[in-house]
Amino acid sequence: MKTVLILGAGTAGTMMSNHLRRRLDDDEWAIRIVDEREEHYYQPGFLFMPFGVYDERDVVRPQRKFIGNGVGRIRGKIEQIDPAENCVTLASGERLDYDILIVATGTDIAPDQTEGMLGADWQNRAFDFYTFEGSRRLAAALKDWKGGRLVVHISEMPIKCPVAPLEFTFLADAWLTRNGLRDKTELIFVTPLSGAFTKPVASKILSHLLEEKNIKVVNDFAIGSVDSDSHKIVSWDNREVAYDMLVTVPTNMGSAAIDRSGLGDEFNYVPTDKATLQAKGHENIFALGDATDVPTSKAGSVAHFEAEILTENIMDYIAGRELSAGFDGHANCFIESGYGKGFLLDFNYEQEPVTGTFPIPGLGPMQLLRETRMNHWGKMAFKWVYWNMLLQARPIPLVKPELSLAGKNLQAASRETATQPIHN
Amino acid sequence: MSENSIIGIAVDLDESGYLTNHDQWTPVIAEALAGEEGVAPLTDEHWKVLKFIAEDYKERETVPGMRRMNKVGGIPTKDLYRLFPDGPIKKAARIAGYPKPASCV
């Protein structure tokens, strides 16, 4: 009996376990999946919790409901991976041997990476919405909000779901307006980027939207510290932004176990071949989802497309063939813009987001890079798709792992300057 | 891409003034670019940063970010801001002859 060991039962790991269980012979291959938690979180829902759109019941389910029969679940904290011995040690001391290892340990916030971020203001005036607990506390704090300076802040790129801070800002604008607090609130968006977003065409459109909504933008802000005494964030070049409430996206980092195992880069992400998803330098280790360093967005849609590609490559690897499937960096992201509207972005390593129709070329019903109600409903419907189709690794009609250029207006992008994207 | 020159030497620059062909880069051009960026003359400390960018770019085909400069290059952020004020990565990348770090995904 041989073993595929999957580290992490989040979006990526759960999907991989279900894909592989369907493809691998039960008599030949055991599939085991390790996670320290019992709960599975619908992470896109964390964005909506602060505004009371979703509550706990929308975003939390038991992991076991999504992991199929024939997959061994192991609850435990990963201590270390030993590629030379083909084994993983848990904090309990238990040793798990593998023939193939799939790393799906994700990424998490690391507020300790910024001086003072965990000071007196943390969870009092300074919040995150990238964790279940953070979003829950932020929801409670917003109930008491009477006005003042509300600062939405990104610490350092790359982050999971790079559009989420913008979405939070747009939703906050709408929520404040609805609650009669918008004219009492100065809404400020602080980013280390030079624009609103990482991709030129989308950045221009989103910058315009921020301006329209009277949201002040502070660009090129590399945070040095948080000062809880005077409630300010301070940049390395000594610029200061005062806040009454800070909603920050702390530095995102991969699992400390990756660091302990010497398998990570400076963010504890696994250096991974961006096409085959094989870990660089280890032929029986593969990585997908937020845990890799591949230069596309850290997003559930990416994990979904990668899982399809990686399943094919693992079948090739087992059969002793050359890895035949190549991931193109495809990401598909909704952007909530408030008032029941939203945008949709569809892009990959090479093609930045442009306008067009999705998923049916020329028809839609979703409009790319335009603000529509249908895009918002797409995002809301996605919660059902996630819980009922995506995690079970059921095919989603019309949505393919490779980016399709059909239905996209490509002239818009070519008019922009093509600057080479740089990844930290 | 436009034909341009730096101190009389013909080079290809993008619209932000970054070299588009690293083969055209020389230490003399670096010194001239450093002048434009207001950080000339280049000291040994500057060169340590520029050399790290060059080594890392060769390996990963991307300009290292701040955390990589700290952790892999061993250069603290406060030193980078002292050496290349107002946007150290962008300035150092330009002087080192590599593309403008647009951003990350």
Task: Walk me through this protein's architecture.
The complex is a heterodimer of chains A (424) and B (105). Chain A is globular. The C terminus of chain A is likely disordered. The two termini of chain A are 41 Å apart. Chain A has 9 helices and 24 strands. In chain A, α1 packs parallel to α7. Chain A is of the alpha/beta class and 424 residues long. Helix content of chain A is 24%, strand content 26%. A 5-stranded parallel sheet of chain A has the order 5-2-1-9-20, with helices on one face. A 5-stranded parallel sheet of chain A has the order 11-18-12-13-14. In chain A, strands 6-7-8 form a 3-stranded antiparallel sheet. Chain A has 3 domains: 153 residues, FAD/NAD(P)-binding domain (3-Layer(bba) Sandwich), CATH 3.50.50; 142 residues, FAD/NAD(P)-binding domain, CATH 3.50.50.60; 84 residues, no CATH class. The relative contact order of chain B is 0.18. Chain B has 105 residues and is mainly alpha-helical. In chain B, strands 1-2 form a two-stranded antiparallel sheet. Chain B has one domain. In chain B, α1 runs antiparallel to α5 and α2 packs across α5. In chain B, a hairpin with a 2-residue loop joins β1 and β2. The mean pLDDT of chain B is 91. Chain B is built from 5 helices and 2 strands.
Keywords:
heterodimer; A: 424 residues; alpha/beta; FAD/NAD(P)-binding domain; 3 domains; five-stranded parallel sheet; 9 helices; 24 strands; 24% helix; 26% strand; B: 105 residues; mainly alpha; 47% helix; globular
Strand content of chain B: 5-15%
- Sheet of most strands of chain A: 5 strands, parallel
As an assembly, this protein is: heterodimer
Strand % of chain A is: 25-35%
Please state the structural category of chain A: alpha/beta
Give the CATH topology of the largest domain in chain A. Answer: FAD/NAD(P)-binding domain
Rg from alpha-carbon coordinates of chain B: 13 Å
In total, the number of domains of chain B comes to: 1
What is the tally of helical segments of chain B?
5
Rg over alpha carbons of chain A: 21 Å
Give the strand line-up of the largest sheet of chain A.
5-2-1-9-20
Distance N terminus to C terminus of chain B? 24 Å
Alpha-beta classification of chain B? mainly alpha
CATH architecture of the largest domain in chain A: 3-Layer(bba) Sandwich
| DSSP summary, beta strand count of chain B | 2
- Uncertain ranges of chain B: none
Tally of structural domains of chain A: 3
Question: Helical segment tally of chain A?
Answer: 9
Overall pLDDT confidence of chain A: 94
